[in-house]
Amino acid sequence: MTGICEGRVAVVTGAGRGIGREYALELARQGASVVVNDLGGSPDGSGADTGPAQTVVDEIVEAGGKAVANTDDVADWEGAERLVRQAISEFGRLDILVNNAGILRDRALVSMSSEEWDSVIRVHLRGTAGPSHFAAAYWRAQAKKSGGPTGGRIINTTSASGIYGNFGQSNYGAAKAGIASFTLIAAIELKSYGVTVNAIAPVAATRLTAGLGPKPGSKPDGKSQGMPDTFGPQHIAPLVAWLASPESTKVTGRVFDVGGGRIGVAEAWRLGPVATSDGVWNAAELGSVVPELVAKAAPNVTMRGVPAQGEH
Questions:
Q1: pLDDT tens digits, residue range 243-264?
Q2: Which residue in the list 23, 176, 193, 245 is annotated as catalytic?
Q3: Residue range 54-70: average pLDDT?
């Protein structure tokens, strides 16, 4: 049976392990040729190793697919450009970019160093913006050349920490919230080229999420059970493959909360209750105005994307 990404060319960053590996394998199963990018560093971004990317390539090739490895640092502008150029030179085109590279350096804000802040922002935000920039430039040139839509796809990786919030992850959460907003804006900018841009907030047990959420073999309610890998990263990959396919043409600018058998749409910031004044507000008047607005507004949510028990 022909896969839904048959004949397409994909780049997947951070694809040597975990969720990125599953993305690369699933895209290959669905017929895509894949550039497997991974610097091969540790979860905090230190070190480098060519092994993880090549191992995934070997898996894909052994299964009858097409893939090549890339170990560029995607947060480096020149590295991002080389990555996109490699896809085009190896396979003749680029159709899909999955931005998945990331690191963690968790610490409470009061104890966080500037280096811990900068390194996480760099890998997540620059590591998304760089490859997207060069992929978008390629698709713009293709659209001008053909006069029609390119069918390009960008799929970014945000997080519940970014769109809902989580203690000890102000650097990571800020980066992931930035990626969610980046997704909305890039979707607007690239629409005229026939490019869709969406994001995934994955819920999966990987080496980056160890200790943060559900473990493999657990149910969505957190209770232990015998079914293996309920929250394994393989549950995220099918949606990414569908978003990468021609079938997703009408879906863009969306953030999906995915994991444990659930697919949900995370709704964007929107204007809630409003109070108006005919002139400049008097600060002394706001003591009654602001609390009333907050009381009417929807409450903030937990890491699961829903209000805490007892809140409405």
A1: 999 999 999 999 999 998 899 9
A2: 176
A3: 97
Give the range of the structural domain holding residue 96, as residue numbers without chain letter.
9-266
- Are 49 and 78 part of one and the same domain? yes
Do 134 and 209 fall within a single domain?
Answer: yes
Task: Confirm whether 250 is a catalytic residue.
Answer: no
The per-residue pLDDT for range 150-194, each reduced to its tens digit, is 999 999 999 999 999 899 999 999 999 999 999 999 999 999 999
Of 23, 138, 164, 172, the catalytic one is 172
Reduce the DSSP state of residue 218 to 3 states and report it.
Answer: strand
Q: Give helix 237-244 / helix 18-29 axis angle, nearest 10°.
A: 50
- Position 75, amino acid: A
Calpha distance 120→126 (Å, rounded): 10
Per residue in 235-274, is it b (16+ CB within 10 Å) or e — as a string? bbbbbbbbbbbeebeeebbbbbbbbbeeeeebeeeeeeee
With contact defined as beta carbons under 8 Å apart, do 24 and 67 qualify? yes
255-259 vs 96-99, strand pairing mode: unpaired
- The single residue of 119, 132, 159, 245 carrying the catalytic annotation is 159
Domain total in the chain: 2
Catalytic status, residue 176: yes
* pLDDT band, very low/low/confident/very high, at 43 (cuts 50, 70, 90): low
Specify whether 144 is catalytic: no
